[in-house]
Amino acid sequence: MVKVATYFAMSLGAFVFWQSMEKVHVWIALHQDEKQERLEREAEIRRVREELLQQARQNDIA
């Protein structure tokens, strides 16, 4: 009886562990996606800012 209870407890523990690892992996993936999107937005902002600065310089020269 103890062996059956131990087996059941270990199986339940393994199931809970894998479910929690799945949630951790999903959380990590979401945060990586959010970070990538943020970096892309910042790069776009830098590019547009540089274009506007170049246009302003050209207008000042002309």
- Low-confidence sequence ranges: none
| Share of residues in strands | under 5%
Largest sheet: none
Computed structural class: mainly alpha
Query: Helical percent range?
Result: over 70%
Could you characterize the architecture of this molecule?
- It is built from one helix and no strands.
- By secondary structure, the chain is mainly alpha-helical.
- The radius of gyration is 27 Å and the shape is rod-shaped.
- The model has no long low-confidence stretch (mean pLDDT 94).
- The protein has one helix at residues 2-61.
Q: What does this entry show, briefly?
A:
Helix content is 97%, strand content 0%.
Tags for this model:
single chain, 62 residues, mainly alpha, 1 helix, rod-shaped
Q: What's the helix and strand layout?
A:
Elements: H1 2-61
